[in-house]
Amino acid sequence: MSRETQINSLIMVGFILVPLWAWMTDEPFIITLTTKAAILALAGIGLNIALGLGGLVSLGHAAFFGIGGYAMGILASHAQSYDPILETPFLIEGTKSMIVIWLVAMITSGLAALAIGALSLRTSGVYFIMITLAFGQMFFFFSISWPAYGGEDGLSIYVRNNFPGLNTLDPIQFYIIVFVIMALALFLTARLAKSPFGLALNAARQSATRVETIGLSTYGLRLLAFTLSGMITGLAGALFADLNRFVSPTMFSWQTSGEIIVFIILGGTARLFGPVVGAALFILLEHILGGLSDFWHIYLGLLLLLIVLFARGGIIGILAGREVAHD
Amino acid sequence: MIRKLVAAVALSAIGTISLADGHGGVKVGMITTLSGGGAGLGIDVRDGFMLAIAQSGNENIEVIIEDDQRKPDVAVQLADKLIQSEKVDVLTGIIWSNLAMAVVPGAVAQDKFYLSPNAGPSALAGRGCHPNYFNVAWQNDNLHEAAGAYANTAGYSNSFILAPNYPAGQDALTGYKRLYEGELAGELFTELGQTDYASEIAQIRASGADSVFFFLPGGMGISFLKQYADSGVDIPVVGPAFSFDQGILQAVGDAAVGVVNTSQWNKDLDNPANVAFVESFQAEYGRLPSLYASQGFDTANLLLSAMETADINDQDAFRAALQAANFQSTRGDFAFGPNNHPIQNIYVREVIKEGDIYTNKIIGTALESHGDAYAAECSF
Amino acid sequence: MSLILLAEQVLNGLQLGVMLFLMAAGLTLVFGVMGLINLAHGSLFMVGAFAAAAVAGATGSFLLALAAALAAAAAAGALVELLIIRRLYDRDHLDQVLATFALILIFSEGTRWVFGSFPLYLSIPEYLSGPITLPGGIQYPLYRLTLIAVGLLIAVGLFLLISRTRLGIQIRAGENDREMIAALGVDISKLYTIVFALGAALAGLAGALVGAIQSVQVGMGEPVLILAFVVIVIGGIGSIKGALIGSILVGLTDTLAGVLLPLLFSQFMSTSAAASTGSALASMLIYILMAVVLIMKPTGLFGARA
Fold first, then answer.
1. Of C112, C123, C262, which is closest to B39 when you measure between CB atoms?
2. Which of A125, A135, A258 sits opposite C306 (nearest CB)?
3. Quick one: which of A193, C109, A32, A85 has its CA closest to B82?
4. Is A308's CB within 8 Å of C102's CB?
5. Are A254 and C226 an interchain contact pair (Cβ–Cβ within 8 Å)?
6. Residue C168: pLDDT above 90?
7. Whole-model pTM?
8. Which of residues 125-154 of A touch B (CB under 8 A)?
9. What are the structural domains of chain B?
10. Fold exhibited by the domain C3-296
11. pLDDT tens-place string over residues A278-313
């Protein structure tokens, strides 16, 4: 086992032991925090497909996170009020079923990612960062001024959605669902990175010309990666909305996009577990520093700065040494 | 019926609700905005609230204060933490309507009391009302309705009205139009967080209006008033108190002097509770209290008054004690309507300069013993 | 809509445009010469406004306040460049985004720590306040006209600086080939500090000028920052000419759309619905404009490289 694999296993054990301990000592809020970390990690895992594997720095992934959130909010609010979403030409009803919501969230955010990617991938470098930011802002402003689903006030759902056989309002049971999804996403990404598609994508990141000369389309590879990435981040958005039983345009804000990037870099870019470590650390810092001072953002900023300047490769980079799995 | 079902589900799920603390002490969770751009309001609510607690000398009350950073998701998680880990009995403190919409329905469904020191979204006043939700400030529409009523008495018949394009802004214009009887010279929605109003001011100038009503809270109002004063347009302006509050008036300066605004409170209200409050707040914190500070102060006193007559573990008795509103409000007369929202006077104030300080003085009463338009839709 | 109103709105759009240019010029220079994305540029805008408000409060002089804004923002810029930014030049954009994101947090909360949570007072000087009458009977605030003039003067100054001075030659050379001018014996790290401080000073000046008619508060820089990014991306990153044209384009689009779209929609909807739909679309329009420009010209209107 390589050093990084050992660290990764430890992290997974942590994600099992901490909530288990919290459950036994009756500290449900610790479970809620861990759930939040796992969901944000999932958003990061999604972005990491585009960013880590494909080298596509998207500052607009909040769009997909928000679409996932609103997929949950809209479906569940219609189910809550027994008011169908659409009556003509055919009937579409709301639903409280998590599985249906997840599918809808992934399909809609995937379609959005396909459209945004198809346009944005015509550019590269800084222009790509900025055009994704612009698309994110479009969704943000639209969601604020669109009155049908609460505008800036957002949408409240009074109880979590249903999952067969589980009581989702119980923190530990909801956590189990989230944990399993996160583990599945990690497994899939690991497989993806080693698949012919992942290898070609990685090659396109390092040298687009070489990939083109052997007859592969870098545009197609990147578009597929961007779409997959958007779908996973969208799923995370639906779970995040379910965790809070609430969605609002904040999910679409550019700070959200920035924070998802922060998770990845904090943990280690292009590391499989980078976003997981990053999200966990971010939540921990927010929790500890927030209790210390009203001005805790200063300390958070300083810490982030130190990590970027002196700990290249993020936390996993420090722990596992320089050799990077995907490079 | 549905709400009861929800509460039951929530109860059984959470499992551990602290019921028997025995000593009758009350644990309060305050979620408010203490960092970032809107922190001034949260700090005022907190300081007003804590001043009342300190003055009461009551040792049976514990307050846990958390910073929501003005982010709804953070507020929801703090509410989860306060309910699940700290096992508080009462939640309070939220400033913004969108955060209140995120937190309040879940909190009251888990049998907590929520006392709102500021936000009063219409959704929680009408069909979405709840017996455990008490609003100690106002329903969001109230101050705008008062501005509309004032416009009638001032003889305005052609108002130009504007607000940011988000639910509270849309409610504001609806509120103004509810009692205002004249014509509209124009109706505009601005962008949330907009800082430049040159284009709106040009339209006001060209509209031929005889009055302007605006709802632009916080920094937006500062920008609008400064630019309006500089534009040379001299159509009289009316607005709710939010853009003329003690905290931001100093940043507006001369541009605000003489502007009429509506508020349920002012520091010159002549009742013993208010005189004592203004004096002690200044002595404690070295600044004049704001509207928000008075609301925080009243919220704490309401809670303290209920603690005197009822035990928090007897929810029905405690709820009845809150409903009685048996406390000395800084606003003078104060009562709860059928939806647990205030029935109170709303005054007309004018911005003046006292020495070096910009502040407000009351020049009349816009609405007497005013409730809200949604109470009829509410049934517990 | 009368012609006078339209003319007034065009002036408003122009004024927004030139203020955006002051922000965008610094951003685009820093990117062009050093290849750095600086998210914290908005914080320098805020530093300028707060410095101006503090000095105006203490001395009562608007000109001293402007000088203070320039000095404080330039000093903050130089300091940040020396301590942090120079370590980021050879990093990828990702590290730059994260580090400057962290700087925003530090600047914003640091400012709140020093100046408190309430907005500060900064006002237009007596001699620039009030409206004047323009040909055609347009009543327009003198201060806003002054802003347009100052912005255009600075734009001219920047062009001269870049086309006529030694520093300008170094900047242009730096944009073309960084390694080469270092090899030619130019003190490249000093050049970088100067360029960064220059950009910061322009942002600080914009903050002070705009702060006089807006609210001087924590977080005031971020909305402007995003707009400035839109500007430089439309204009082409690294191009001063692009930044100027992009600024005016964004300023005019944003202002005129806000007025014309609700009017357009009110032809076939109720006034309330038109106001709400129109302003929703107007707030998205500059982002749509940016996306369209990038799709047509992936490196912006005047951009040379990605």
1. C112
2. A125
3. A32
4. yes
5. yes
6. no
7. 0.84
8. 141, 144-145, 147, 150-154
9. 2-138+270-340 (3.40.50.2300), 142-263+346-376 (3.40.50.2300)
10. ABC transporter involved in vitamin B12 uptake, BtuC (1.10.3470)
11. 999 999 988 888 777 777 888 888 988 988 888 777
